[in-house]
Amino acid sequence: MSKEMITKELYRLFSLENKVILMTGGAGAIGSEIAKCYARLGAKVVIGDFNEEAMAEVKAEIDKEGGECMTLKLELPDADSINSVVDATIDKYGRIDVLANIAGINKRTLMTNGSEETYDRIMGVNLKGAYLISINVAKKMIALNETLPEEQKVHLSIMNVASYNSVMMLGGNSVYGMSKSGIHAMTRSQAIEWAKYGFRSNALTPGHISTKLTTQLWSDPYYSKYMLDRIAMARPGYPEDMLGMSVLLASDASSYMSGQLCIVDGGCLAGGQPWEI
Q1: Of 176, 197, 226, 256, which residue is the catalytic one?
Q2: Is 38 a catalytic residue?
Q3: 3-211+238-264: what fold?
């Protein structure tokens, strides 16, 4: 088979050319890598984030590579801020093809040391924010589709970001785990309720990922050994490891896939490293 035929088939399946992708948390460690990858594949990337300086850096990199990126200040879970970002995206591009709910925060603390403030903040950003923006986008794409001929209708794909903590827990991550378990449930609900509109929803589910925010854990001999012993591949994950699944979920290659936890964890949940026999 010729390289030309291979390229044509890959393009047919995985191209994101002209897809409008709205990303929350697109300026973070994982989100920024996904944003740059989406732009390289031809998407019109819109990043919504609270960190305007970090957004500007990501946009500059995308612009330098010839990609297209718009940045918008987003404060989750504020409904007015969400509405403003969604409307600005639609005003510019006319539609939203992919919603990537990547924004997330955490504060590691024992449950007995927790507070209502910490609970509200983590659940607000991680779950309520994703819930509200998903509904906002879905309603507007449903209304838009009512005005469009069949061949032009939006087939919205939602990529929520769940976590290892959606199904397994680490001490000190109680509220974060609750929020990410909620993301898992929300993904299934979106999949079954919105399929009739031609929409689908899946959850990118990272395992133990090494970023600037987790440097302290990975540099600690006890915690790093604990995690590595539980990863079959015996290495941390990196933001770049999330790109393949992120492209799959945003592209037409996953058009019959919905309601799934798409786990990218180096074999951690499969059982980790085997015992020596």
Answers
A1: 176
A2: no
A3: Rossmann fold (3.40.50)
